[in-house]
Design brief:
The chain is α/β, with parallel strands linked by helices. The protein is 27% helix and 15% strand. The strands form four sheets. Strands 9-8-7-3-2-1-11-10 form an eight-stranded parallel sheet. Strands 12-13-14-17 form a four-stranded antiparallel sheet, with helices on one face. Helix 3 links the parallel strand 2 and strand 3 (90-95).
Length: 448
């Protein structure tokens, strides 16, 4: 994995629909690979493609060794990996090791793989239901742990057989050419063995690093070594620990910050100071769980969205673009009666389909509504002054930026930083500003 890599996150159900059933699929991704190659991305990370009852839209896995029929087949996934490789693009999948679906065969055949208690043992709360994180199982007359939905029982990572199962899963997909994983809930796999009160005993336990170190040993059996990127929803001070076993730890303090110099610059500076030697930082402004960058950071203002894109694409390290970021796509409009997500607040608005054309003719009765197609791939591809071309140019320019990061003195509202022998400067205000004789319009960035 290159230190300046651009990862493009695909939410498969909403990326591209190849058969007109309203659900995006793997052949749809294959059909759009030329767009991603033209854009210049290095990696495609797809949200889960495994068979699932879709209680949590693929994050409740029923089989780790296959593909959801709505999305395609194993052959389709093999084709995606092969065709992406021809274009110099790696494919990473999304692994969900914290929990399975309650319809996974393990839940019925291997109950010892899960966390059980004869009564509700502690004060742990479910992220989704907001109530106790324990569900009564009538068959076994015991409670099982679920950090998320009741249909997502947590696995017991104190059981070494669970470790063996996942090492087999890793090898199965590495053998098929998968070049990396995004690891769901990477901070939450290990729970206190004594089930004591307190959220600090429910997740973020130090034993989790041993899991990833063992996965790295598996990954090193392959050349090139596949990458491991964790969904590390932890404070920045704790994020650095995850580089013990992960190649990349997702920086959620950065993603969650307001789009101001006062909020973001200290996070960037602290990140660059705190990273272990040789570690690569990781930046993103939105994903399938968080409002799109153009909505949360830019309030729909395309100029401000370009400023956000300039920042993430000129900082050192690896950047993740969520599908639609390249056209400053905003969150979709989903009426209450069309909401499908079980989380509160709903994540459906950031999961609406990607508009490839203004007519949206490629989406017939999509699984989530597509109401606004003013920002679409086709129109922006034709317009050399569009956000899409702006992002493409930035992706190319970032490859020539030097290593490291150094904040430079700058006027109020302007963020300037050194990258090797180049200076990146961003006006983060709605007024014209000047840096070292260079005039910057509102929300304009420049590489000097």
């Amino acid at each position: 994995m290159r230190g300046h890599a651009v990862i493009y996150q695909v939410y498969p159900r909403s990326f591209a629909d190849s058969n007109g059933d309203g659900v995006g699929d793997i052949p749809g991704i294959v059909a759009r690979l030329d767009h991603l190659a033209w854009l210049g991305v290095d990696v495609i990370w797809t949200s889960p493609t495994f068979p699932s009852p879709n209680v949590d839209w693929g994050y409740d896995v029923a089989d780790y060794h296959s593909v959801h029929p709505e999305l395609g087949t194993l052959d389709d996934l093999d084709t995606l990996i092969a065709e992406a490789k021809k274009r110099g693009i790696d494919v990473w999948l999304d692994l969900v090791p914290n929990h399975t679906s309650d319809r996974h065969a393990w839940f019925h055949d291997r109950p010892e793989y899960y966390v059980w208690s004869k009564d509700i043992p502690n004060d742990w709360r479910s992220i989704f239901t907001r109530g106790p994180a324990w569900q009564w199982d009538e068959r076994r007359k015991r409670y099982y742990l679920h950090q998320f939905a009741p249909q997502q029982p947590d696995l017991d990572w104190w059981n070494l057989d669970v470790h063996a199962e996942f090492e087999r899963i890793l090898r199965f997909w590495f053998d098929r050419g998968v070049a990396g994983w995004r690891i769901d809930v990477a901070h939450g796999l290990v729970h206190d063995r004594e089930l004591r009160d307190g959220i600090e005993h429910m997740r973020e336990r130090p034993e989790v690093h041993d899991i990833y170190l063992s996965w790295q040993r598996v990954a090193r059996e392959y050349d090139p070594k596949p990458a491991l990127m964790g969904e590390t929803v932890v404070k920045l001070e704790k994020m650095f620990e995850y580089y013990k076993g992960l190649d990349l730890a997702q920086n959620f303090d950065f993603c969650a910050a307001d789009f101001t110099i006062e909020d973001l610059r200290p996070i960037v500076e602290k990140t660059m100071r705190g990273l272990p030697p040789g570690a690569t930082p990781n930046w993103f402004g939105g994903n399938h769980d968080h409002p799109r960058m153009a909505t949360r950071w830019a309030d729909g203002d395309e100029r401000k969205a370009r400023a956000a894109l300039f920042l993430v694409l000129t900082l050192p390290g690896v950047v993740i673009l969520y599908q639609g970021d390249e056209i400053a796509l905003e969150d979709g409009q989903v009426p209450d009666e069309r909401m499908l997500d079980i989380a509160n607040p709903s994540r459906d608005p950031e999961r609406t389909p990607l508009p490839w054309t203004r007519a949206a003719e490629e989406w017939r009765e999509p699984w989530l509504p597509l109401k606004d197609t003013r920002r679409n791939i086709e129109d922006q591809r034709r317009d050399a002054n569009s956000t899409l071309h702006y992002v493409r140019d930035l992706i190319r320019a970032r490859r020539d930026l030097g290593d490291g990061y150094q904040t430079l003195p700058s006027p109020k509202g302007v963020w300037a930083y050194r990258r090797g022998d180049r200076t990146c400067v961003l006006n983060m205000t709605a007024a014209t500003a000047t840096y070292d004789g260079t005039k910057l319009d509102a929300w304009e960035g420049a590489i000097l």
